[in-house]
Every structure is written in C-alpha cells, then in structure tokens.
UniProtKB/TrEMBL annotation:
Protein's name in the database: Trypsin-like peptidase domain-containing protein
PROSITE patterns: PDZ
InterPro entries the UniProt entry points to: Chloro_Bact_Ser_Proteases, PDZ, PDZ_sf, Peptidase_S1_PA, Peptidase_S1_PA_chymotrypsin, Peptidase_S1C
Keyword Hydrolase attributed: yes
Range of residues in the leader sequence: 1-30
SMART domains reported for this sequence: PDZ
Residue stretches making up the PDZ domain: 284-348
SUPFAM superfamilies referenced in this protein's UniProt entry, alphabetically: PDZ domain-like (SSF50156), Trypsin-like serine proteases (SSF50494)
Single Gene Ontology MF annotation: serine-type endopeptidase activity
Length: 386
C-alpha cells in the first residue's frame, strides 16, 4: 500500500469511501430526474416563508375568499308531487289488463314525492337568489337553507328561462343577507384559477379549486342546448348545479351547471356575462324575450355551393321558413343562402344564430342573401320567440 495511505488511520479511509459513494449515488439519483422542475416545500430565498404551489396567489387568498363568500351560497331543496302508485300502476290502469279483473280498484293510486337538491347564491341583500332553471323545474315547493343555519326558508320563483337554464328565486329572511358580486366572465382567461362552492351529493358548502380549461363550449344535455359555457377542472358534481364559480377576486364568473358523465374533472358553467344581460328581465318580466328570425338552417356544403353558384362555403342555407315569422314577412325563402346580417358577414349557421341572439327584439336588420346566384338584401324585424 502506498505510504500516504499507510499514514492515514483505517477509520478515516472507510469514512472517505462512504462519503464518496453517497456523492456518486446522489448524482445518479438527480440525473435520473433530469429535466423535471425543481420543487421545494420552502421558499429558498426566504427560508422562513412557506412554499406557495400556486404562483401569484397568497397562501391565505383562497381561504379568505371562501370565508367571505360562503355565507352567500345557499342550499336549495325542491319537492315535486305526482300521482301514481309505482311501477305496477300502468298495468292495472291498462284496459286490456283490467278486463281480466273487472273494474275493482286493485291498487289505489298513491301520490309520489320526488325530491331534488341544488345550490344557489344571493345577489341582493333583500333575498334574490340565482340558480339553474333545471334545479327548480317542475317543483311544487322550494326551500332555501342559508349557510350555518338549520332553518329552511320557503322560496318563490321570480323568473326563469329554460333555454338559458337560469332562474331567480326570492326569500324573505327578515334581515339583510350577505351577497356575492357578479364578475366579468369575458375577461377571464383559459388557465385562470377558479373556485367552486356548492352542495354536491348533499355535502353542504363543499369547496373545490381548479382552472378555466376552455371558453365558449357548446354542449347538449337532454333537451337543453348550451351555446357558450365555461369549462373547468374544478370538481363539479350533482348538487353543485346553480352554485357560484368564483375568480380570485371573489366574484362570480359562472354558474355551475353541468358535468360530463363520461369524464372526471370536466365541468361546465354559464358565464356571468349571460346572467347580467338577462337578470333584469327575469326579475321584472318573469322571463327572457328571445330574439327570433323564424328560419331553420343548414350548413353550406360543396354540393350546395355548386348548385347555388356560391363562391365558397360561407353562409347559412335556409332549409325552412316558419310561416308568419320575421323571415317570411321579409320575403326570405327556402333555398336562400344568408351571407350577411346587419353589416356582419355570416360564416355558418351557428354564427348567424349568435348574431340573431345578440339583437334587441323589435330591431330592424338588413339581411344579405344569395338566391339562384343573385345577391339580394331585405329588411327584417326581429320578433320575440314564443
């Protein structure tokens, strides 16, 4: 052995080899994770400060928002009564079945009671509450329970709109109530953090956090066609419907409305901009006057473009004109291809529908169209949809 090593005590040599081995192992371990972000649960520049996993958000911001807003979030219970005793009732009421038993009352019909659960939030201190129309649809009785209270207040429906899936309720609590403000959903961006509060599966005031995953999502749920939903990965489940989706200012940017039954972590909310545009009508008129042109539309295909001599596939083909509707009164016909609406180009049927929906009922609009290869225009008066 080299004389240098002979002069070093054996214990120090062992310690040195162990230390070297640990260094090599540490380098190998770090190298196996090359390319992954370096995370720490402590702030490296300020060792005494807790690590914040949400950049730009203070560690107390979300709890503060929840604490401030939760008193304005309510639980909505509904009751619906219907006649009939159960699954056997149709058989006993069927004439073919009853002929074997005469007209005796084999199974007296008993009323059935259906119960529903949803969420909502208070928008004015005198007790006006926003929720989804599908939460209270068909209800014979509606009760609202405030946060931290056992007492349920009877609620009356002030106004609702099935197409928009919005409803306004009113309770009389005998005192001023906490409220939550409506924010600007138009300014929210994909990737912005949002907070959902509601009563999923009856678990009162459950809080979930996520981001805006997409904007302007169309979606069909049963017989409802939504046009412009916010998509979020903040968990939304049955019972969350009607509850608020909040930005980090504690403002409502959406009303939690629907989930994708085939996927986890995909929920949808009605933008607050939609609510703002119709709230006064819901309160003062009990409903919303939907602008209506009175046509059924289809997309322009290559075959249609060639047949009608169109230069491209833009526009909306009129498949049917409703008799007595605004389009019929203006002289539009089946087979006309609408290419312009009140100064805006029409790219497809959905584009035209959006333009009509943004028109005030009673307004006169210029409609440009192509008929048998010739460009024409008419003036139509937009009416309210019955």
């Amino acid at each position: 052995m080299n004389s240098y090593f002979k002069s070093i005590p054996r214990t120090k040599i062992v310690v040195a080899f162990l230390a070297a081995a640990l260094v090599v192992a540490a380098v190998a371990y770090a190298g196996s994770y090359h390319g992954l972000p370096h995370l720490s649960w402590a702030n490296e520049t300020n060792p005494g400060e807790a690590y914040n996993p949400l950049p730009g958000i203070g560690p107390d911001t979300i709890p503060d928002i929840v604490s401030r807003v939760s008193p304005a979030v309510v639980r909505i219970d509904t009751t619906e009564q219907s006649s009939g005793s159960g699954n056997l009732d149709p058989f006993f009421n069927d004439p073919f079945f009853r002929q074997f038993f005469g007209n005796q009352n084999l199974m007296p019909s008993q009323p059935r009671v259906s119960r529903g659960l949803g969420s909502g939030f208070i928008v004015s201190s005198d007790g006006y509450i926003l929720t989804n129309e599908h939460v209270i649809n068909g209800a014979d009785a509606i009760e609202v329970t405030l946060a931290g209270q056992d007492k349920a207040y009877p609620a009356r429906k002030v106004g609702s709109d099935k197409d928009l899936d919005l409803a306004v309720l009113k309770i009389d609590a005998g005192a001023e109530l906490p409220t939550v403000p409506l924010g600007n959903s138009d300014s929210i961006r994909v990737g912005d953090w949002v907070i959902a509060i509601g009563n999923p599966y009856g678990l009162d005031h459950t809080v979930t956090v996520g981001v805006i995953s997409a904007k302007g999502r169309p979606m069909t749920v049963q017989d409802r066609q939504y046009k412009n939903l916010l998509q979020t990965d903040a968990s939304i489940n049955p019972g969350n419907s009607g509850g608020p989706l909040l930005n980090l200012n504690g403002e409502v940017v959406g009303i939690n409305t629907a989930i994708n039954a085939q996927a986890q972590g995909i929920g949808f909310a009605i933008p607050s901009s939609t609510v703002k545009s119709v709230f006064d009508d819901l309160v003062n008129k009990g409903g919303v006057a939907h602008p209506w042109l009175g046509v059924y539309l289809q997309s322009v295909t290559n075959e249609i473009a060639q047949y009608y001599g169109l230069k491209d596939l833009s526009g909306a083909l009129i498949a049917q004109v409703v008799e007595g509707g605004p389009a019929a009164k203006a002289g539009l016909q089946r087979g006309d291809v609408i290419t312009g609406y009140n100064g805006s180009n029409v790219s497809n049927p959905n584009n035209l529908i959006d333009l009509v929906n943004g028109t005030q009922v009673g307004s006169q609009v210029e409609i440009n169209f192509v008929r048998q290869g010739n460009s024409k225009s008419v003036i139509a008066t937009i009416e309210a949809k019955n």
